[in-house]
Amino acid sequence: MAICVRSHVFDSMGRPVAIEDFDGEFSRDAYIHGLVELEVDGVKLLDRDMTDTIDALWSFFVAALEDLERNDEALLSYPERPYTVRIRSMSGGRILIRVGGVDVPRSAVVARAEFLSELRRGAIEFFRGVLRTSPKEEWSYRRDLTRAVQLAAC
């Protein structure tokens, strides 16, 4: 099963730039837009048209992963857009991911461990990239990175 998670941030010209290549400054007050791409076995669950405030979106993803570990299901709503991501545990170590708020609802069933690992990796990669260029007083990014790393350690 192939799962791919990528984060892109829009630069000052409105072009998507991979988080590892972004050199702009992050701030919770800046409302930096970007997108998270999520593809499972060739099915694009989250695509480049699903833009939003990227730092808040990744914070919501981390919270959803925490919910999934506690409750075997999670619902994530995009901060500023009508998109939703519902994740539910199934038997056999699998999870069902459903994306709503799009023209045609999207879904996939994937191995739980692999999905969680890839999403955690994406969160860690994103927040490490953010912290490279964030002002020191932006403690919430360090908090979110710590939460993502703790999830990865479970």
Topology:
Elements: E1 3-10, E2 16-18, E3 33-40, E4 43-46, E5 51-53, H1 54-71, E6 73-77, E7 84-90, E8 94-100, E9 106-111, H2 112-133, H3 139-153
Antiparallel strand pairs: 1-2, 1-3, 3-4, 3-5, 6-7, 7-8, 8-9
Describe what this molecule looks like in 3D.
By secondary structure, the protein is α+β, with helices and mostly antiparallel strands. The protein has helices at residues 54-71, 112-133, 139-153, and strands at residues 3-10, 16-18, 33-40, 43-46, 51-53, 73-77, 84-90, 94-100, 106-111. It has one domain (3-153). The strands form two sheets. Strands 1, 2, 3, 4 and 5 form a five-stranded antiparallel beta sheet that branches. Strand 6 (73-77) and strand 7 form a beta hairpin. The two termini are 22 Å apart. The model has no long low-confidence stretch (mean pLDDT 91).
